Amino acid sequence: MLASLKARSGQWLDIFITALLISSVAILLVGLLSWQIPFGVQLQLQVGEVAPHDVVAPRQITYESQVLTERARERAAQSVPDQYDTPDGRVRRQQVERSREILDFITIVRSDPYASPELQIDYLLAIADLDLTPELALAILEASPEEWQAIVADVPRTLDRIMREEIRENTVTIARRRVPALVSAELSEEASTIVAELVKALIRPNSLFNQARTEELRAKARSEVPVQQVTLERNEIIVRAGDIATPEQVEALTQIGLIQSEWNWWVTARAIFFTVALMTVTGATLYRLRPRTLRHQQELAIVVVVVTVGLLAAKFMIVPHDWLPYLYPLAALSMLLAVLLDVQVAVVVTMAMALVVHYLSPNNVPLITYLCTGSLLGAVILGRAERLSAFLWAGMAVVGCNLLALASYRAPFTDFTVPKLLQLHLIVLLNGGLSASVALIGYFVLGNLFGIATSLQLTELSRPTHPLLRQLLLKASGTYHHTIIVSNLAERAAAAIGADAFLARVGAYYHDIGKTVRPYFFAENIMDGSSPHDKLDPLTSAQIIISHVADGLDLARKYHLPERIQDFIREHHGRSLVQYFYIQAQKQAEGEPVREEDFRYPGPSPRSKETAILLLADTCEAAVRAMRPANREELAQLVNRLIDERVADGELDHCNLTFKELNTIKEVFLHVLQGVHHPRIKYPENVQKAAAPTPETAPAGGNGHREEEPRSGSPTPSGTRLSRTGGVEEPASI
Where is there biased composition of kind Low complexity (predicted)? Predict the structure, then answer.
């Protein structure tokens, strides 16, 4: 009951700490986004308002005026007239042909003896292209055959003549006014009127408005207008008392930092809305891609620290300034998270920070692209940073990507003078260098502060010259050999399932360093065949065997091993039972109860893929070394049974290994163990004294060496058994 209460209180404490970390970031973000200098210190003036007093420039300043630049560019664009295509002859021919079709139809209607005059008028009014009036329709029907023939001949001719000219959508009316002058003078007044009205109705624009060309020329005109520079001298009057503030004056006051709006609670409300949306999306994305970050307080604390520094820097660097926002080292945050945690975390946080930058600098798409693309590329290039040179390459990649991002919006840089262009390139170089430098410094500072097993630390720890590995080699050479084989198993299996293979290998190097305290109590280090466990009671022997975990943790803390490496030490046996000594204790107890808890490892069970792989590798290697299966089938059965028993015992419940990954691990173990412990033929000791053994008499499963004599107090190899947890049931092999 007490243990259950402690577990529940621990869970609630973890939840409270996680909520505290997340809420601290949210509160900081709201505060920074809604931060306003107390009103009354500076001038409150908007466009169209009356200035309360004279305002002078406190210092000399030169800035790029967006108001004047946009106004000049708009004037240049409006000076470009609308562009039209050249007259299209197809339109003229289509309309002439259409006029003939209509005239033929009218001729048929006129000559229809069965149609009444009212029906004939209805037929003519139904012609959509003409839109005739009843009076004109009646006049067409009343025209004599001779006049109608003249009309039929003159309408296409007149229409062809007028449509050979350029007719735009806005000049159709002018063209229609000119039609009566083009009608043949030989026609009567009534016939001329009919011809003019029919031609007017059939006129269509033959020169269409070319919007793309117009926009292109206007955009070119806008781009040719240089950025308007405004220089204010010190003590120059910007706006006089009583003047109505213009956009230019308000912009000048803003640039020089003299404008301050009233405290607006809607600013705080918008900041809260933005923060809630951003935190929700970011948290949900991390939970989907890498839930470990939200559950592991150390990783979450790293994210909080990095984001806090990034938010504070963004508040003071993402300001209205020519070059300061482009110096903001967002790439440093991305690279830090990629190298300390994971690239997925870096990508998610980078996108979230890019949205924050967009909130601080709205409508600045080039800046967002510049910061976001460079940061993402830097994180991807750096990766796990197995060498210091990776930071240099990542910084260079950030510089190159930044240049491409700027070129994609500013090329061909006609708006920039030569000094301005040189300044821009210098800022890009400084951004890449600053990002790489901050990432490298943060890498060492945060790595040491949080005890993270960074790739550079792992590289140092993997060297055989490390004091702990030297002790392991000199004091427990058998354990050292076991460690090398287990590290190969763990590395190969981790790489096969996509886990951290380097971490698994280095963690395996140190998982048994506790055996250096009492090396001769472990089978692989006993050389003379006698076991010290023969003189001890089972409980003492079990406690000695179990104590190598605690001894290893003490050594790990003494030599400042990272916390992730310490996890391999404390979790490589999980909560398994030292079954051999437990059974021995039950036999000696003669019916008295024996506390099973005294014979179990303290745990905890593996909580990551890497430590789970180590547990399985350690179990399988020890069992295969003890059992010595004669062929691949026996080896496969043994490996499958050991891993299945670990699953059934619940040792893998707290890691996120899938059954598919377990099958992959089994195949890898089988392949590696077959190569390490493959059967060999036992050769005779003296070829001259003894006849060579025939294949029938050669011992199956020999290993090429003299068979070991059974150790004192230990069962012979043929009597060796495995416990439920995969341990070998003999004192010297536990």
Answer: 690-700
